[in-house]
Specification:
The chain has 278 residues and is mainly alpha-helical. The chain folds into three domains: 71 residues, no CATH class; 100 residues; 81 residues, Leucine-rich Repeat Variant, CATH 1.25.10. The chain is 68% helix and 0% strand. It is built from 17 helices and no strands. Helix 7 packs parallel to helix 9 and helix 10 packs antiparallel against helix 11. About 5% of the residues have low confidence.
């Protein structure tokens, strides 16, 4: 378990503060219910009890929820991070160990660290996240780095996403492209445009949506080729959407052709996009 000394110290302080009654619950939660939910193995039960304990203060709670930051299931790690985010001092202390894991931990440790640091909005972890992005990590760890950069939504997280766009796993590349759209004040569509030619259709579809959201006019020619020639209907639909957002009259011919697409979704989106052209 992570930061054992910190957990013990925090539990001791909480115990002193609340005396004989170790659990002061918010919304009806208590440590026993959290423990029972964990023992049940149900993700839904764990999430419900940790959320119910949003305002709970007890030593055992800290121990239980800290252990959840290393659970194998993302939804559980996420709610544990959320719980600590409500306790900034504890989150900051725990973050120190997780930041160290980004540099030297194995793939599982990096996964857990990135999810905690993203969930707790630990902006000071951005340099370590960028460093970790340069490591040869598996898809699960790489996805966690993407999630952290997306949650922080800071421009200094862009290198994390750009590194993920070259990962061998298509799910990582698609997630990274999607997260690119969520960086605050980001107007640079170039990395997403570069993914329009990806070998995987899910990545191309994600890239088309992001290029449209960022109004990446430089990708117009590629989008026109996709809307009439890609084998995947979702790619064609998203390309039509993007062309509508870019709204260049030069796309009229491609969108008009897309109006005869075999997919109703593509035809409908192309019709909407045509109405938006200048």
């Amino acid at each position: 378990m992570k930061n054992t000394k910190l957990i013990a110290a925090a539990a001791f302080v909480v115990g002193l503060s609340f005396g004989a009654n170790p659990a002061h619950a918010g919304k009806g939660g208590d440590a026993g219910k959290i423990r029972a939910a964990i023992n049940s193995g149900s993700v839904d039960a764990i999430i419900a009890e940790v959320e119910r304990a949003e305002g709970l203060s007890c030593g055992e709670c800290i121990t239980l929820v800290t252990a959840l930051t290393e659970d194998s299931r993302y939804a559980v790690r996420e709610v544990a991070g959320w719980w600590f985010a409500k306790r900034p001092a504890m989150a900051k202390a725990l973050a120190e160990g997780f930041v160290a894991d980004l540099a030297s931990g194995d793939a599982v440790a990096v996964r857990n660290a990135a999810d905690f640091l993203g969930s707790t909005k630990t902006f000071t972890s951005l340099p370590a996240l960028r460093q970790a992005a340069g490591r040869n990590l598996d898809a699960e760890a790489a996805l966690a780095l993407v999630r952290a950069a997306q949650a922080l939504a800071h421009k200094d997280g862009k290198p994390v996403l750009q590194a993920a766009m070259s990962h061998s796993d298509a799910a990582v590349r698609a997630a990274a492209v999607t997260a690119w759209r969520d960086i605050l004040d980001n107007q640079d569509a170039a990395p997403a445009i570069g993914m329009l030619g990806d070998a995987d259709s899910s990545v191309r579809a994600a890239a088309a949506m992001v290029v449209g959201a960022l109004k990446g006019a430089a990708g117009r020619t590629q989008l026109e080729a996709l809307v009439i020639g890609d084998a995947d209907p979702f790619v064609r639909r998203n390309a039509a959407f993007a062309l509508g957002q870019i709204a260049n009259a030069g796309s009229r011919a491609a969108l008009t052709k897309a109006m005869s697409d075999t997919s109703g979704l593509v035809r409908m989106t192309a019709k909407t996009a045509l109405a938006l052209l200048n």
